[in-house]
Each structure stands twice: as structure tokens, then as C-alpha cells.
Design goal:
By secondary structure, the chain is mainly alpha-helical. It has 43 helices and 7 strands. Helix 12 (321-343) packs across helix 13, helix 27 (660-666) packs across helix 29 (705-722) and helix 38 runs antiparallel to helix 39.
Length: 998
Amino acid sequence: MQSPHVILRWSTHLVGLLLVLLLAAMAFLMGCYEMQDNDIWWHLRGGEWILQNGRTPDLDPFSFGSADQRWIDLHWLFQVIMAAVHRAGGLAGVLLVSAAVAAAAFVTAVAARPAIAPLPAVVLALLLGLALAGFRFDPRPEMFTLLFLSGYLAVLAHFEARPRLVWLLPALQLLWVNMHGLFIFGPIVLAFWWLAWAARRAWGWLVPSERMPADRPGVIRNLAWASGAVLLCCLVNPYGLEGALFPLKLYPKVAQEGNPYKAYIEEFMSPRRYGRRWFLGVFYFLLLLVPVSFLLPAIWEAVRVPTKSGRQTTVGPERFPVAWLGALLALAILLLLQVLKLTWPDRTGIMVEFGEAMPLFLLGVAVAAAWFLRRSLAAALLCLAGGIALSAWSAWLDGYLGSDTPSEWILAVAGMTGAVTCGLVLRQTGNLFGMLLAGLFAYLGLQAVNSFGRFGLVAGVLLSANLGGWVGQLLKEWSAVGWRTGVAWACRLGMIVVLAGCVFGVASERYARRIGDPRHLRLRERPLTFAHEAARFAGQHGLPQRALVYDIAQSCVYVYHNAPDGKVFMDARLETPTLETFQRYTEIEKQLNKLGGRWSGLLDQLGDVVVMLSHDGNVQAEATLLSNPRWRCVYLDSLATVFVRRSEEERERRFPTFDPAARHFAAPLAPSRPEGTGAATEEAEAAYHVGVALGRPGVDIWEGHIPWLLLALDRAEQAVREEPESVAAWTTIGNCHWKLIPDRERAAPGPHQDWDPTVGMAWAQSTFCFRQALKHGPDDESVLQALFRSFGARRMADAQREVGARLLATANVTKEQAEAIRRLLDRVAPRIISPEGLDQDVSDIVMRLLQSGRPREATLLAEEVGPPGQGWGWPAADRLAGAWMHLGYPQKARVIWERAIGVPAEAVRLERLASTYWAECEHDKAVKLYQSSLAAGPRRPEVDWALAWLHTQRGEAIAAHQACRRLIGQNPTDPLGQEISQLERLLLHSGGVDIKHE
């Protein structure tokens, strides 16, 4: 039978193994979310090229803008591995390999902990680093950089006890230099270790009383030879010395302020460009906690005094481990409150106000701690200097990361006091190596968000080494062994619960929803992200084999499908394009998106090219090419458009010009491309924005603006059929109806006027759709903004006031708009009219309220009081029902029109009822009632006008044309006659109407 000590030891090992496995599981699952990184596509194509050609590339084979440039492809081994995995297991295999590498990196980081550090503390520290690093767990070479960097730190943490471990470093470096350009971090980390060792030796020589003990035999010799081998391994790449020095050539492109790469490519941008994002809060917290991890153990060392058995804490409250652990917890909570100021959704809360004062509060805590520890001069100085430095550092970070103007003098204070604090900390702990690591990776993280993953890993390792080792020492000195064992087991079990909860949160996607990540836990690419169909179309035989693709992410997709036969002008690789090529690429994009830009000559210089534009960020460029007679659109889907120059007849026959109206009339119910949930919504939004952009001077709205809006309308209605609760789809339908008003110069109608369907229907339709969007997304800012503007245009003051109040309460508005809304609220105070004791006719009061711009109050009063008898008289009923239509409640308007008395003719009532169904998108019911109105006679122009537009919106060209002919036969006056003539022209041109057959 085994002894209790053996059972306890094995139980401890099993629990520790479970903790590590849970950490690995979380890292692995975070790498299994839908892929959204575009670089994988050119990496896969590069790997395929190497496998097919049996060598690494020399000159750039994928782009014609850099065809004469040398490609130093230091990612070649990563590309070959991923291409082979992709052949065997598709994109799912690629994601699984990348996720496994992420898990291995953090498991290796566990091995970098000091032996004395409790495993729960180590895992907790690495969990914080994982929270930051995990948002970049896409299949890219930097995943292997995390693994190799973690391996370096683990080896350097333990090689002094086992000197031969250092010979793992050359092996890691050999792989690293052929995987990623950031292999340079290997020699840099080694150089930091040598610098720290030399500093320790120099200090021991200058202060003989603190001479360091001699190194174990073979430690320095092994590391020296291994360091030389590491440097030699940097040369073992297909490009030799040129490849080894290439990172120095790339560094200015990604780090130097003011260069176009940093301003253009999102992952190279400073984190302050991102605003309030969850990962920015984690980054901020780690930037504050890592300095604390150096400072607090140093203060603890300073209050200890030498004894015969080593060093012991002085007598007093500060000797109890619980007090120090409590101080750590309290400080972490204070720092967390400071971080919440940056990331809290509502910046007016008391927690945010508390965060504003946090730097001063930290300073006060430091002064109090210095007074409490005054018996130790070193500890008091550490508290004062460290408190000032941490306070200034947090204040500067708050301004820098909060997109405010950071104070230079605060940074100077932080720098000077930080330097003093570092000196004092080194005097106590001598951890220069850790400080150098923290400084380098924090600096890189502040320069660009693509360094967050590496900073997260290094921060986790440093926290586990500094705080984990310190906590281990505290527990070791705990006099009550029984209590110590009990607390240790409570921490282990508590950490298991925390990690299990985190793993469950990631696996159930609750974690992703909480942080606002739209991706799902799926081994696939994120849907509707990469324009594969457009790229394949643009690479077809018969189209130009040169392509200009925007945005740069989609150029990688084009490379994947078409290179090396089809070449892009430039893609997302940093290694090949010159600065001149990159500036030319961005200048063309800028000019295409600029009204009246000088883009034509720049495109002519590229020769015969196909232009592929993603909708995201390039709507103005699409409108520019669509409105130019030399260019034509040959393809459109929910993600991108493809354009070519007008050229020979054969190409125009094989690739006909895309006509949005013809697409609308030919297949209004067809699924969008690529097929899948959300595609119709994306295509609808793209077509809508293109249509709005085409409402520019010099473009006939009936040739550009309206055809694209018709396409957007049927795509949005298709989206609603697929997902009835889609806020985006309902919003797009509302916007389309609003913008489909042909005469934009005509003053907007309102409920203060008699109801005229020919001018009021579009406004009623759009308002109803916005109401539907708010029903499913009550706090949606874009919908509230649209309603606010729409009610303002129609001079509906009380309705606008109601929406304005919701905007102030639930949405982020600018200061200027907030002031305008407050002025409106003050000017249009609600008038509560009691129905009791009214000494006037209710209909008269209702009409006066409508005339004064208070339709909301008028309709509510009419609904509560109502006229005696069966219903309202027709003049009041027609105006009141029109007000309900303008407010977006056609069902309430229908009740009034149904019950109204004194109707001029039954055909009029039927026409009004049909309008209510049309506004509700109940098209079949609307058509039947309009046809009944025609049959009831006499013929009225608004009925044929409504049928012409209703059939047009449904994609029924022949029926719409018949209604146009009936209306034209009635000789309508302008502007109705001009509008219907233009609509007929559109139907004849794009609707496939054959007049002879008809």
C-alpha cells in the first residue's frame, strides 16, 4: 500500500497535468475559429509553386508590378508544410496544424517557469497572455515564431541547471530562419541574456561585497558555442547572408512612423488607431501588470534582512504572506479599474470616473506604502519611485491608447522615474534579462497590433516567472505547513474550475460573443470574407492576365486562384514590392475613390488589366468605373465586382456587360453568389451603396442610380425571406425606398399635407421598414439615425423628438449632434392633451396638431378619443391615415380608411387600402386591391402609377409596362408624366419587354 505522501505527490502531478492540458485545450480551440487572415492564400500558392518547381522562388512569380524584384522567401518551409497539409486535409487541416502549434507554444511556455513557482499561478499568468495572443491565432508563420520564442525562453530559464539544453537553440533557429522573417528574435533574446550576464559580472567586479557566485562548469562554455551555432544557423537558408540580413531591410516598412505601409496595412498600425476594443484593454492591463511583477517582489526583497540561514522578512505585519498576496490582488484590481476606463461601454459611469482618478490614487497608495515600510529605506524608495513611475505610465497609456493626445511631460516623468525604479529593482533582484524582454516587446506592441501575440506570450512568461516565483517563495516561508498545503490545493482546484469555464466559454462560442468576435468555432474560412468566385471569374481565359485588385486582401485570393499565369499588380507580400510600386498602388486606389480623380492615366500605364474591387471600402471606385464609358462591369456578387476596358467584340460577347436592372427583372428571386446565409444581405448593401454613389453629377439617375437600387431592393427582400429578423436587410429595404424617389429636388411631403400616394408612398415604405429594423434591433444606431433624418425632412417634430431621445440614450452620437438633439428636445416639449373636457371638435384639434408638425400626438389623441359613430369623415380620415403612414404604421392607417365615412368613391378606398399593404411589403394583397380599384372605376392616375412601380419593384417588367402605358394614355401632368416615361424607358431597355409581342 502506498504511503499518503506518495499518493499526494502523484495527485499533485495529475492535477498539474490537467491544468496544462486545459490551458493547451483553450489555446487549441482559440485557433479553431473561422479563418479570416488573407495571407494564407499567397502562402498556399507559394508552397504549391515550390512543390511544383522543386526550388524556392528567386524573382517574384506572382505580380507584374514586381516581376523584376528578388523575392527573399524566408517563409518557404512554412508554405511547403501548409501546402502539403492543404492537399491532404484542406483548409480544416491547415487550421488544425496552426491550432496545434499555438497550443504547443503555450505548453512550452509553462516549462519556462521557475521550479518554485506554483503551477496555478503560472497557468493564470499565461492565461492573461493567451487572452491577448489568441485574437491573432490564424494560420500564419508567426504561429511558429510563438513556438520558437517560447522554446528559447524555456531553454534559457533552465539551461544553467542542465547546460546541454542550449543545444536545442541551434535546432530551433534552423527551423525558425526558414519559417518566418522574425527569426531575428532568436539572436536578440540570446544577446539580451549575454548582456544581463555581463552586467551581473560587472556589478560584482565594481562591488566586491556583492560578487556573484561562480557559474557551474560548462554553462557559459556550452552557451557560447551554442550562440555561435545559432548565428551560423541564421545563414542556413536558401539565400544565405542576404536572407539572414533581410529582416533589417523589412523593419522600417513595419515600424517606422510615417511610412506608407504602416499607414495602409491594418496590422502594422498603432493600437491607438483601433479605439475601444477588447484586446486593447487586455494589452493595456498587461502593460501595467508586467512592471508590477518586477516591482512588488523587489519591495519584498528590500524589507528582508540577512540571517544565518539566508534572508528573512522583518518582524511586523509585512512578514505575513497573506498581506503580500492581498497587496498584489488589490493592486491588480486597481489596475483593472484603470483599464475599464478605456474599454467600458458607457464612459459616463462611476467606474469610468473612478478610472480617471486612478493615477493619483496609485500615487497615494505608493506614498502610504512608503510610509508603512519606512524601516527599510530601499523598500520606501522603491515604493515612491515605482509608484510615481506606474502612475505616470498609466496616465500616459490612457491618453495614448484612448486616442487622445498623450502628454510628453508625463512620458518624461514616467521615463525618468522608471529608470530610477529599474535601477533599484535590479539592485534587489538582478533581473535585467526580463526587463530587456519586457521593454522590447512592449515597445513593439505599442508600434503595431501585429506584435500583440508575441507580447502576450512574453508577458505571460514574465508574469509566471516574476509573480509565480515570488508567490512560490512566499508560500515556502509560510510557517503553517497544514494551511499552506490546504491553500495550495484550493488554488489548484480553483484554477481547474476557472480553466474549465474558459474552455467551455471558447468551445460554446460565448467567449467570442462576449468580446464581439463575429466568427464561429468552425474549421473553415469565415463566410463572405474572401472573394473566391470573383477571383476565379477575373482569371478566366479571354480576360486580361494582369489584374489590379483592391483591397489588398483580395489580391491574395486572386494570387491563390490564378498565379503564376495571372499576375496581380501588387499583393500583400512585403518582401517584393518597392516603395515606388506600393505608392503607385495606393495612389491609384486613392484616385479611383476620389470624385474627379486622375485615375485614368494611371490605369493606362498598367496596360490591359482586369480590375477587381471588393465592395468593402471601394464603393466610390466602383461608381467611378461604372460611370466611365471606357470601362464596363462584367461581374458582380455579394463580395466584389470585376471590370474590363471596352474592347473587341469577341470579349464583349463572351463577357457581356453586367446590367443591374436586367438582373433584377430576369431573376429577382435567385439566390445571391456565393450561396449561403447572409450573401443576399451583403449584395443588397453593396448594390445600395453603389446606387447612392452613382447619384453623382453627370450620371443619369435612370441609368445608374435607380437600376442599382432596384437590384438592392430585390436582394434585400430575398435576405428578409431567408432571415425575417435581419436588421441589416430591413434597413437596406428602407434606405432603397427612400432613395428611389426620382425627383430629389421635390420638397418632402408630410402629414401636414393631404395624403398623396405618388409622393408619400416611398417615405411611408421606408419608415415602415425602419420600424421593422428597430423591432429586431431596438438600439441600432444606423436605423435611429435614418429615422431621425427622415422625420426631420418631413417636419415631423414630435416624432423626431421621440427618436432623438432614444439616440441620446442608446447610441453613440457626436457632440454636435447631441447638442442639436437637446435643442430639439427643449424646443418641442411634449404636449399632453387630456381627452376629458375637450370643448372643441376632436377632428379640428387633430388637424391643427398635424398642421403644427405633431403627427405623433395627433394620431395618439385620435386613437384614444375617436369620433362618435362609425368612423371619421373622409377629409379628416384621409389626413389622419396619411399621418399613420408617415409614422410607419400602415396597419393603423388601414383601420381608419376601412371605417371612414363619406368616401368619394369605393375605388379611392381600395387604392388607399392597397397602399397600406404595399407599405407593409405585402405585395400580392396590394396588387389585388389595386386591380380591384381599377375595376371599380373611374380610372385614377395614382392607381396605374402604383401598379407600374409595384410591378417594377417585384421584377415583373411586362405588367409594369402595361401600367405605364395606361398611365401615359391618361396624359398625366408633370412631374408624374415625366417620371413614368423614364420608367417605361428603363423597362424597355433592361426589362426585356417586347412591344410588338405585348
